[in-house]
Amino acid sequence: MLLGLFSTLGPFTIDMYLPAFPEIVKQFDTTASLVQLSLTACLLGLGVGQLVMGSLSDVHGRRRPLIISMIFYVAASFACAFSSHIELLIVFRFVQGFAASAGIVISRAIARDLFSGQELTKFFSLLMLVGNLGPLVAPVAGSGVLSFSSWIGVFITLGLLGIYLLMMTKWRLQETLPVERRMPSNFKQQLKSFVSLLRQRQFAGYMLTQGIMIAGVFAYVSGTPFIYQNIYGVSPAVFAILFGSNGISLIIGSQLVGRMSHRVSERAFLLIGLWLAGLASVTVLIVATVHGPLYALVIPLFFFVASIGITSTAAFSLAMESQGHMAGSAAALLGLIPFLLGAVVSPLVGIAGEHTAVPLGVIILSTSTAALLAYFLLVKKGGDGTEPKALD
């Protein structure tokens, strides 16, 4: 549960203050684009932070970087709450995201320290179960805080959450990476670790397969608010129900892998998820092109998001399986790539305006196809053995 809470820290940091956007605009007498920039800064901090914190955890162990990052998280949360200018809020949001990234990447590294094989898959599916609740619960929690407080209360709440996680890490979390298994404290060596991971054909294949598929989810998240409300005219309440139902499909997909891993291999699940995503995305594109009814769009999107739960769980377990002493660096790369690719595809959803769903269909079909290619060109050609295969 503790590692699950750390995995939700990112979604809570991203989503909890979203309902307060209009209030923040008024508070600072600024523009919506500048407030949106505070979200971009947080996402950038989450992406870059995973790369840094994952490497540090391989060098200094898991507990110390986690404790230090939580101290910074608490400080940044309260600094956001009492920012006097929007520019300061943007800066502190970057720091907050950077610190929160430690919870995401180190919780995954700890999972690899403790488990392997099917047990790792089962445990990671549990992390996914708790982590996937974050995007569903965080906006509701933010709205609840705003019902009796201002946007400042949201960041104070995040600061209190950081204090709780800091205390639990200090008192309850034991070190899982012994000194003899740690990487040398050398920047050049850390860089070599990343290069070594990227040169492993199968790891690179799993990393790209997972990252490209999750990038499709970023396109879905950024596109559906306009598609459902502007094209199909649903109310915000109905949109929340539709969006939440797909969040449930993500949980179902990840739990399916964890519960059935003793009967069906992770590779088989990964292929099932990839083909399911391809079929669902083709259906979405057809429905968008002919402007079909809402239910005809909602159903394939439900299965597309479920496929993400399947592929991300299976690909992560397979990628981490042979990365014992470099688990932090491996988890960092696996966490960074989706943010980078998601940042690229998300703005493309609105390239044709807010009144067509065709770009969404094109993008998720492209990501599904690219993920399949990454699997067959890198993973499949890398062989079925457990030893890492070099790209050259």
TrEMBL record:
Primary location: membrane
Domain Major facilitator superfamily (MFS) profile intervals: 1-383
Family as reported in the entry's similarity comment: Belongs to the major facilitator superfamily. Bcr/CmlA family.
Protein keywords: Cell membrane, Membrane, Transmembrane, Transmembrane helix, Transport
Keyword check for Phosphoprotein: no
Stretches that traverse the bilayer: 32-53, 65-84, 90-111, 123-142, 148-167, 203-228, 234-257, 269-288, 294-319, 331-352, 358-379
Topology relative to the membrane: Multi-pass membrane protein
Compartment(s) of residence: Cell membrane
Annotated Pfam families: MFS_1
Protein name: Bcr/CflA family efflux transporter
Entry-linked PROSITE patterns: MFS
Keyword Transmembrane helix: yes
